[in-house]
Amino acid sequence: MIARLQLRDFRCYAELDQRFGPGANLLVGPNGAGKTNILEAIYFLSVARSPRTAREADLVRQGAAGFSIAAETDTAHRLTVTYREHAGRAWSLDGKAAENPFGRLTVVFFSPDDLWLVKGGPSGRRALLDRVLLQARPLHGEQLAAYEDALAQRNALLRDVKAHRAGRAMLEVWEEQLVEYGVAVTMRRSAIAADVGARARELHARLAPGEVLSSVYVPGITGQEQGAAEDSLRAAFAAALAEARPREIERGFTLIGPHRDDWSILVNGLPLRGFGSQGQQRTAVLALKLAERAALEAQTGSPPVLLLDDVLSELDGARREAVRSLTEGAGQAFLTSTEPEGRPAAVFRVGAGQLREVPSP
């Protein structure tokens, strides 16, 4: 839980120092007031990226040289990130340099834009699973990065082989690393997909009675389905890479592996991406996000901070009440809205780069 949040030169905030309590904290203000920026800062502090932009320079207040975000938690720890244009970013925990923030402060972020989870391609669904794993098991990040590095090296070598600048023998060196790290990534993703999928099915039934949500994780390794044994996956991956090598040399990139994994989301047996209505897609995404939160709590032993950006306005009355009932009494949540609503623990007016807590009536 975040007990205190401090921002300097982040987005529209020159300086902010605000304390928050448990339960629901509602940020109220007109569009463009800076409500989402608060959620964005908390998210960045947790997972080392923004949910809205890939460029860290976009987060710097106009005219400033960099930004800083700091949070004090209810466990008396202080996590800080600073960013400077030419120096990059740096993390610290309780005043001592830290390598990354993963696992220090867990969060789940949800906005109306998250419909891409079911409407978009596989990369967004892989990212959801990786986000849970990165926060719960930092080792996953190291192995995922190692896999992606080996993949980039092999892809470059495939192009060199096609251009006769390198021999095929070197491909086997990178394939060994692809198999080693790729199988570890796929096994973890498969397990967390089953966990989140089961939780989402149960939550979805409460949000949309009469409809059944299901999911199928499909590894990007030829011939393997969800739940394959590790030895079987290793053998299949190595064999598939060897078999596909001529085609991959011709095309200049790797066709098989965790970078091609998918996680298909269905309602009543039909893929939401092609058959779901807007309402079905929105409800399914909400169930997935609440399931992400439940899975993180099970993995870490404490509920992650829930960040809901203008979500309730997108839902009908019944689903809005269902969301409130599912989030009440489950740790700390930050919600944004243009108008006060619901039964939040605390309400903050947002505007002109400032927060002002509204006294309880």
CATH class assignment of the domain at 115-301: Mainly Alpha
Low-confidence stretches: none
**What is the architecture of the domain at 115-301 at the second tier of CATH?**
Up-down Bundle
The CATH homologous superfamily of the domain at 115-301 = RecF/RecN/SMC, N-terminal domain
Structural class: alpha/beta
The backbone outline, from C-alpha atoms, is globular
Cα-based radius of gyration, to the nearest Å:
22 Å
Helix content: 40-55%
Average residue-wise pLDDT: 89
In CATH, the topology of the domain at 115-301 is named Glutathione S-transferase Yfyf (Class Pi), Chain A, domain 2
What fraction of residues sit in β-strands?
A: 15-25%
Order of helical and strand elements:
EEEHEEEEEHHHHEHEEHHEHEEE
Determine the N-to-C terminus distance: 25 Å
* Count of runs of 4 or more consecutive helical residues: 9
Main beta-sheet strand count, sense and barrel state: 6 strands, antiparallel
Number of strands: 15
Strand order of the largest sheet: 2-1-4-5-6-7
Structure report:
The chain is of the alpha/beta class and 361 residues long. It has a domain at 115-301: RecF/RecN/SMC, N-terminal domain (Glutathione S-transferase Yfyf (Class Pi), Chain A, domain 2). It is 43% helix and 24% strand. The protein contains nine helices and 15 strands. The protein has helices at 35-47, 116-119, 122-136, 139-162, 169-207, 230-251, 272-275, 278-300, 317-327; strands at residues 2-10, 13-19, 23-28, 66-73, 78-84, 88-93, 96-98, 107-110, 213-218, 262-267, 270-271, 305-309, 332-337, 346-351, 354-358. A six-stranded antiparallel β-sheet has the order 2-1-4-5-6-7, with helices on one face. The chain has a six-stranded mixed β-sheet with strand order 8-12-13-3-14-15, with helices on both faces. Strands 9-10-11 form a three-stranded antiparallel β-sheet. The longest helix has 39 residues, at 169-207. The two termini are 25 Å apart. 40% of the residues are buried.
